[in-house]
Amino acid sequence: MEVKLLSGALGAEIRGINLKDSSKENWEVINNLMLEHKVLFFRDQDITCDEQINLAKKFGPLEKHVYVKSLKDYPEIIRIIKGADEKHQWGETWHTDVSYNPKPTKVIILRSRKIPPVGGDTMFSNMEIAYQTLDEEIKKKIEGKKAIHSSLGAAAFVDKYTEMEGNGNLDEYSNEHPIVRTHPETKKKILYVNSMYTKRIIDMDKKESDEILKKIFEHQERLDFTCRFKWTENAVAIWDNRSTQHQGLTDFFPGRGLGHERIMDRIAIQGDNPK
Ligand code: SIN
Fold first, then answer.
1. Ligand 1 binding site (Cβ under 6 Å of any ligand atom)
2. Domain spans in the chain, listed from the N-terminal domain onward
3. Which residue blocks in the chain are alpha helix, DSSP H?
4. Which residue has the least CA distance to atom 2 on ligand 1?
5. Pocket test residue of 63, 65, 81, 90 for ligand 1, highest count of atoms within 8 A of CB
């Protein structure tokens, strides 16, 4: 097995592991690598939908997406289609998946099916380092505090896609989570707010909450916390959604003649209630 680090912050490209093998032994190696590097990348893994599902189930029960219709024959998989001319794109700013849920996603397995010749990389950011390097004054102010995460607007957003279908659910969800959570497996502290879904710090006046969240969001965007993966077809990313944020770069800009379609299959594994 070969482990090639993608940056000093997080991320490793792994060679010598076959993702068609969903045995307990193979999964344990993958899970340990994921806990260590937070996001793993594998190339040339021509796995079937069933094989992707079998591997995902090793991490725990699978999660249905709140708003997006899944594949007809595989309710566990949603197909993320980014059209060249789509006005709004999936996951195009920093976020942690579905943090508005009471039990946000634990792990995501994303498999590429069609990749543009240029553009469409995914970036990841390490929220354990973001916590460690956070300003001490801010750390004191947020100690023991919770924030509200809300899906406000997410349902309507899905409806605007031309290439992907909503599942008909238009309800909105809000849940409170600790601003600093402890990872259930590594026991490390994680800065657990994100600019896409976190709206307000509880038990703090709105002005102060807005100011602190703005500072934290800016801090979380530091490029030295990140790594970037350049996709090829039949590549797979497996990431820990508890300790990272990510964003899919939608640098297709049809006006520059670079517009191409990008197609990915996504499976999410249920997480726990952040503590
Ligand atoms: C996501 O935001 O869930 C997917 C990221 C990507 O498509 O690169």
1. 80, 90-91, 97, 110, 122, 246, 248, 264
2. 2-270
3. 24-37, 49-59, 127-132, 136-142, 154-159, 206-220
4. 91
5. 90
Residue ranges of alpha helices (H) inside 148-245 are 154-159, 206-220
Mutate to test the pocket of ligand 1, among 82, 229, 264 (most ligand atoms within 8 A of CB): 264
Burial class of 260 by CB neighbour count within 10 A (0 to 12, 13 to 18, 19+): middle
Q: What is the pLDDT of residues 139-148, one digit of tens each?
A: 999 999 999 9
Phi-psi region of 120 (alpha: psi -120 to 50; beta: other; left: phi over 0): left
Confidence class for position 242, pLDDT limits 50, 70, 90: very high
Mutational test site, ligand 1, from 266, 267, 269, max ligand atoms within 8 Å of CB: 266
Q: Inform me whether the pLDDT recorded for 70 exceeds 80.
A: yes
Helix axes 24-37, 49-59, angle to 10 degrees: 70
Q: What is the pTM of this model?
A: 0.95
User: 2-270 sits in which CATH class?
Assistant: alpha beta
pLDDT range class, residue 254, cuts 50, 70, 90: low
**For tokens 């006005």, what's the residue?**
87
176 Cβ contact partners less than 8 Å away, ≥ 6 residues apart: 146, 147, 148, 149, 202
Contacts of 85 (CB under 8 A, 6+ apart): 254, 259
Give the residue carrying structure tokens 């008909």. 168
Residue 141's pLDDT is: 97
Confidence of residue 157 (pLDDT cuts 50, 70, 90): low
**Mean of all residue pLDDT scores within the chain:** 93
